[in-house]
Amino acid sequence: MVPPHCNLRGEMPAMTEQQPKYRVPFVERTGMRTLAAEGGRAKLLMPLAGNENHVGVLYMGAYTVLAEAVAATPGITLCDPDRHFPIIKDLYVDFKRPATSDVTADYALSDEQLAALGADLERKGSAGYVAEFPILDTDGTEVCGARVTVKLLSKNWPPTDGNRAA
Amino acid sequence: MVPPHCNLRGEMPAMTEQQPKYRVPFVERTGMRTLAAEGGRAKLLMPLAGNENHVGVLYMGAYTVLAEAVAATPGITLCDPDRHFPIIKDLYVDFKRPATSDVTADYALSDEQLAALGADLERKGSAGYVAEFPILDTDGTEVCGARVTVKLLSKNWPPTDGNRAA
User: How far does A160 lie from chain B, in Å, by closest CA?
Assistant: First the structure.
């Protein structure tokens, strides 16, 4: 079993009632903000200010922080923090243009995807999806493509009560 | 022409005489340290302290910062800062195990690779390589695989003096 690499930031207003707070200082230092997080959707913003590289455009690492949070947040909505945890399996970022503004990304799992993932998690103890989406500057130009493999895992799997389906 | 995304950190003791200082606050906040940087080789260390995720293992973003710097630093040795600049084209990290210690990575371009890249840079105005290497914990266990595409580009290419080779 792979313990969590995972890594989501604390501020997810739409989820704080049911979801655990994932506080990661590395992420908080970036100033990333949640624009929308409800149901299976997440839209987040990474500010340019404080995250510039040596020539004043957005630094590579800021893209990876944004990509991961946008990819994993929709799956987190399926997790019961007492029973499940998310991990990132891999992450790919493909730079298209330099960003001279804040950037955003938006990713959602459909109701059908959420249902299938939830069923996998109960039946097999694990579920996974590949989130692929663009990262956009404030003009709507794609500055980076992101692809992130997210896994949701059950703690203490297989269950020891003998009732697990084969 | 793609302006620089690039993103290397300031502290490269072996290069400060010839190389520009690439200061990126995002990188400096991680506390990443250079263990070796001479010729076409770079070995860097990413501390766990300050870069933990919410369960105390190394956060994903810290891997990407390390991977990029280790990949790009050997190529930077070919750059004349008045004439060339490095960019990162893409970056992939594949998580194998959680890291509960500092991590290091080590990458080198051979003399033959450096010569070929330098020749490309002069002849075509650009050169590129794919750096692939493991990221290791202090026990020497591979905790992550990294693959980074680095490009070296000439400023103001093609030259306007009419003497460029076809």
Answer: 25
